[in-house]
Every structure is written in C-alpha cells, then in structure tokens.
Design brief:
The protein has 258 residues and is α+β, with helices and mostly antiparallel strands. The protein has helices at 2-34, 59-63, 70-75, 85-91, 178-188, 240-247; strands spanning 41-42, 57-58, 112-117, 150-154, 169-171, 198-200, 203-205, 221-226, 231-235. The chain has a five-stranded mixed beta sheet with strand order 5-3-4-8-9, sandwiched between helices. It has a two-stranded antiparallel sheet with strand order 1-2. The chain has a two-stranded antiparallel ribbon with strand order 6-7. The protein is globular.
C-alpha cells in the first residue's frame, strides 16, 4: 500500500507541475501581448489584504483569457470591486488548472500564488518579486536571470482566486514553514489564528498584513514555475538564503545549485 500511495503521489505531483507549466505559458503569452507581466494586484492604496471591500483585482483574474477562460473573463466587471456580487459569482467557478490534485480543498480556491518578494513583507508597491501591488515587471527587468527567479509557486490557500491578496501572492521566506502551516490549518477549521507577533525591522506590524511563504501538500517540498517557464520541485529544506535569492528578481547574488 505505501508503494501504491507513492506512485499516485508521483502522478499527482506531475499533474501539479503541468498546471504550473500552463500558468507559466499563460504569463508568457500575456507578456508577449502587453510587453509586461500582469500586476500582482491592482488597488489604489497599499499595503493590501483581504478586507472584502477594496478593488484588489489580482493577477489570476487578468490571466484568464490566456489560460482558455475567456468566458469567465468577459463576465468580470472591472468597474466594481473584486468582492462585488457579480464578480464573486465568477469566482465561485474555479478553473481546474488552479487546483493541485493533491489538495484537500474542494471549494473554489487556488493552489498557486505569484511571488511578490524575497522575504516576509506586506504586499505593496516596489517589491522585488515579479508580481506585486500595481507591478509592471518586464522580462528584461529580471536582471538576475529568468532561470533563477521564481514566478509562481504552490500555496495551501483558503482564499478565493480572483483577489490579489495573500491567497494569490506569497513571498520566498519559507517552503512549508511551520507558522504558515499553523495559519492555514487554523483558518481551514474555523479556529482563531494565533500567530506570533509580526515583526519587520524590529517593529511589530498588524498581523492582517502577514503574507507567508509557499506551502504544498506534496512530500518533501513544493512545485515552482520560474520566469523562464521551467517547472521544478524545490525541497522544504532548501537553504533559506538561496530561496530568498530565487524570490528576488534583481539582488545580483550568485545562486548556488538548488
């Protein structure tokens, strides 16, 4: 039985990688059309969080025509908030490409998130990832090299796929970090999230701005799509400095083998 389970997991992991490959191709097609990647989140102010009222349209909403979801895209009302009733109706029908087959989530949530920054920080403008608040990153802006820059990775999101919040944007702080797993399972079962204080540069910030790293149901690590379109499983035990560098498109650091 363990052998059968392992074979099935290998198949699910391969299917998940194919989802990421298709999303990566969609982002490349978007860039080919607009000469820029879509903004990770569109909103007039930041930092952003899932407040249920702001505009907050995310990168997946803008990517829909490029992943063969034109009908869903045409039904979106970009004159209203992403949380409006009309847009929530569109968000209730999740494209299969957005769900990892190893996921235990059956609701219309996404298993994939864009990388907005190399370390933990609120979702805002001027981040060093490729998809962040009001971003307009071109491939030529990825000066560290597309092969060495994370574009999308896995998440155990309990959030809808249309908003550009921590449900669809993550940072390269950890893979399967304990704090992030605790927050996920707490929210999934409706329990209060008792996170440790959120400290940045010695200053405690509102926990609602906490974003978190990438998460996966796969053994040993999580799947990632890099800016060159390649897809790879990264180990949860990857050197944290290397992971930070992979999440930063322009730090100029040499990256060891990963």
């Amino acid at each position: 039985m363990p052998a059968v389970h392992e074979v099935r997991e290998v198949a699910r992991r391969a299917s998940c990688q194919n989802n990421l490959l298709q999303l990566g191709m969609g982002l490349h097609s978007y860039h080919h059309t607009h000469n820029v990647l879509p903004p990770g989140c569109v909103n007039s102010t930041g930092p952003v969080f899932d407040d249920g009222t702001s505009y907050n349209f995310g990168w997946i909403a803008q990517l829909l025509p490029y992943i063969d979801e034109r009908t869903a895209y045409r039904k979106l009302d970009f004159q209203q908030s992403v949380y409006s009733n009309r847009n929530l109706a569109v968000g209730s029908v999740r494209p299969n490409i957005l769900l990892c087959p190893s996921s235990v989530v059956s609701r219309p949530m996404t298993s994939y998130a864009g990388c907005h920054h190399g370390t933990e920080t609120p979702i805002d403008v001027d981040r060093n990832g490729v998809l962040f608040l009001n971003s307009s990153v071109r491939f030529r802006d990825i000066t560290d090299g597309r092969r060495h820059t994370i574009m999308i990775g896995e998440t155990l999101s309990g959030f809808p796929f249309l908003p550009g919040t921590r449900g669809t944007l993550r940072n390269a702080s950890f893979i399967n970090g304990q704090k992030d797993k605790q927050a996920y399972w707490s929210s999934r079962f409706g329990e209060p999230q008792e996170l440790e204080p959120y400290i940045v540069n010695g200053r405690q910030l509102d926990v609602k701005y906490y974003v978190g790293g990438f998460l996966s149901f796969h053994n040993w690590g999580a799947n990632f799509c890099f800016a060159d379109g390649s897809v790879e499983l990264l180990s949860s035990s990857i050197d944290q400095r290397v992971l930070h560098n992979l999440g930063n498109r322009m730090d100029g650091n040499l990256i060891e083998n990963f």
